[in-house]
Amino acid sequence: CRGANRFVDKRVEGKEFSNGKILDENKCQVCQGSRGDGKGPAAEPLMGHPVDFTNSKFWKDGVEDEIAGTIQTGKEMMPAFDLKPDEIKAITLYMSHTFKKATPNNN
């Protein structure tokens, strides 16, 4: 039974990841870019430019909560997005698995 639970967890995580990818493409990439480097087509005129998610210094402890808060309330020129908690979780899962690089502090 233990292996079956891991299979279900991976399937759910896979669905969350897929949902997060779709949400990221539709909500985030216009500013963040498809590589998460903050160089999307709408990023240039923004003051301060969007965060570079490919920079390992960004991925400090607790940053997933910070991302969720930013999605909910906005930050500087980024507007708040009216997303459900599971959608926010899906985006943060997608972002952390896609853009986070392994570093000595983030294995």
Explain what this protein looks like in three dimensions.
By secondary structure, the protein is mostly helical. 53% of the residues lie in helices and 0% in strands. The protein has 3 helices and no strands. Helix 2 packs across helix 3. The longest helix is centred in the first third of the chain and has 31 residues. The N terminus and C terminus are likely disordered.
What is the H/E order? HHH
Broad shape: globular
Strand content: under 5%
- Determine Rg (CA atoms, Å): 15 Å
What is the structural class? mainly alpha
Cα-to-Cα separation, first versus last residue: 28 Å
Oligomerization: single chain
> What share of residues is helical?
40-55%
What is the averaged pLDDT score? 83
Which residues form runs of ≥5 with pLDDT under 50?
1-9, 103-107
Biggest pleated-sheet summary: none
Count the helices. How many?
Answer: 3
Keywords:
107 residues, mainly alpha, 3 helices, globular, disordered N terminus, disordered C terminus
Q: Which helices and strands occur, and which strands form pairs?
A:
Blueprint: H1 2-32, H2 63-73, H3 85-99
What is the gist of this entry?
The protein has 107 residues and is mainly α. It is 53% helix and 0% strand.
